[in-house]
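Researcher: Let's do a round of design. I'm pasting the C-alpha cells now; please hold your answer until I've finished.
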C-alpha cells in the first residue's frame, strides 16, 4: 500500500470520527489529507470504496494491537487472554466510545458482513496459534465468537475485560 493511500485512509478515519460517516464528504477527506478532490478519486472510486478500505485498515490496526499485547506473555493462556482482551477492547472503544457509534454499527452490517466473517476466521486462527492448538480447532472459533458477543453486551470496558479474562481462563486452564 502506498504511503499516500494510507495517509488518505487515516485522514478519512479522522474526518469520519469528527463528522460521522453520513455527513462526511469526499471533499472533507481530501482537505484533511491535503490533496484535491480529483486526486482523491485517483485512489478511491467513491465514498463506499474509501469506507471499505478504512474498514480493512481498522481491522489491521486491531490485529496489530492484539498481537502486540500478546507478544510479551509466556504461557499460551496468558497470550490468548492478552490478545483477546486487546482485540475486543479495541473494537469496543470504536463501537461504543465514538460519537457516531450508531453509524459504525450500521457500517458493520452494510459493508462488513464478509469482512467481519473474515476477521473472525483470522482471529480464530490466531487464537489457536497462541493457545498451541491445531489450525481448525474449535477453541479458536469459540473464543472469537464469544469475545464478539461479550464485546457487544458488556455495559462498560472494565466488565468486558473481566469477562474476556474469565472466558479464556475457563477454556484454557
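Researcher: That's everything. Go ahead.
Model: Designed sequence:
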Amino acid at each position: 500500500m502506498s504511503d499516500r493511500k494510507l495517509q488518505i485512509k487515516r485522514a478519512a478515519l479522522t474526518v469520519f470520527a469528527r463528522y460521522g460517516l453520513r455527513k462526511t464528504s469526499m471533499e472533507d477527506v481530501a482537505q484533511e489529507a491535503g490533496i484535491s478532490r480529483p486526486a482523491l478519486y485517483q485512489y478511491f472510486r467513491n465514498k463506499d470504496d474509501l469506507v471499505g478500505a478504512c474498514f480493512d485498515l481498522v481491522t489491521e490496526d486491531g490485529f496489530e494491537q492484539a498481537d502486540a499485547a500478546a507478544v510479551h506473555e509466556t504461557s499460551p493462556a496468558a497470550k490468548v487472554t492478552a490478545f483477546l482482551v486487546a482485540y475486543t477492547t479495541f473494537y469496543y472503544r470504536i463501537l461504543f466510545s465514538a460519537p457516531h457509534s450508531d453509524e459504525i454499527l450500521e457500517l458493520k452490517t452494510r459493508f462488513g458482513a464478509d469482512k467481519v466473517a473474515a476477521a473472525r476466521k483470522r482471529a480464530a486462527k490466531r487464537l489457536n496459534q497462541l493457545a498451541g492448538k491445531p489450525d481448525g480447532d474449535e477453541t479458536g472459533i469459540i473464543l472469537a465468537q464469544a469475545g464478539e458477543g461479550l464485546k457487544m453486551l458488556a455495559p462498560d470496558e472494565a466488565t468486558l475485560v473481566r469477562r474476556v479474562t474469565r472466558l479464556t481462563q475457563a477454556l484454557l486452564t
